[in-house]
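We modelled the chain as a single entity of 219 amino acids. Its sequence is:
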Amino acid sequence: MPPPPADPSPKSLAILEAASRVFLAHGFSAATTDMIQREAKVSKATMYACFPTKEALFAAVIERQCAGTHQAVSAIAVVPGNLAKTLTDIGLAYLRIVLSPEGLALLRVIVADAPRFPDLARRFHLAGPRVIIGMLAERLGQAAQAGEVNVQAVGIDAAAALFISLVRGEGQLECLMHPESHPSAEQLDRWVRLAVTTFMAAFGTPGRGTQAPASPVMA
């Protein structure tokens, strides 16, 4: 499967935005290239010049959606000596995106079509959750070197994956099972704080990196 354009042209971007709306509204299988073409208001020749297949177009949509998550998490600065604050900031940035209407819709589409299109599901997993886990693992590695956390029992990558699962688990399941549910900023804060408290209780070094973070200002 060819990779999506690294730097989309205006027409490619218009097609991607149209494809995102169509895929998230109808799912991958039900969406057609004709629907996307009409939504993007471009010719078939233009669309196929940018994205030769529907699979390539959906892969580009996945990459674009995941890139927004990566940017939000990578912008979180490490707070030296206060790992709990760093984890809280990362957890909130991540949860706001995965529990957004777009984030939930993309996950529903991916899961629904995973048995028929496993390559696309795998692409999402590698471009999304696995990249976030890798980014968090880097920060945990820094905290481990500073003596703020001890994850030797499970390893840094496994500890990072565990934290992301703690952050995402209850909230994502609730939102998926109750589509009309829209968690408040306070609920997001509670879910993240519970994940941070549980993680630090398991891996935090007593007296290091465990300061309770101040309640964040919600956007």
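As a brief sanity check on the tokenised model: The domain at 7-52 is CATH 1.10.10.60 (Arc Repressor Mutant, subunit A). The two ends are 38 Å apart (CA to CA).
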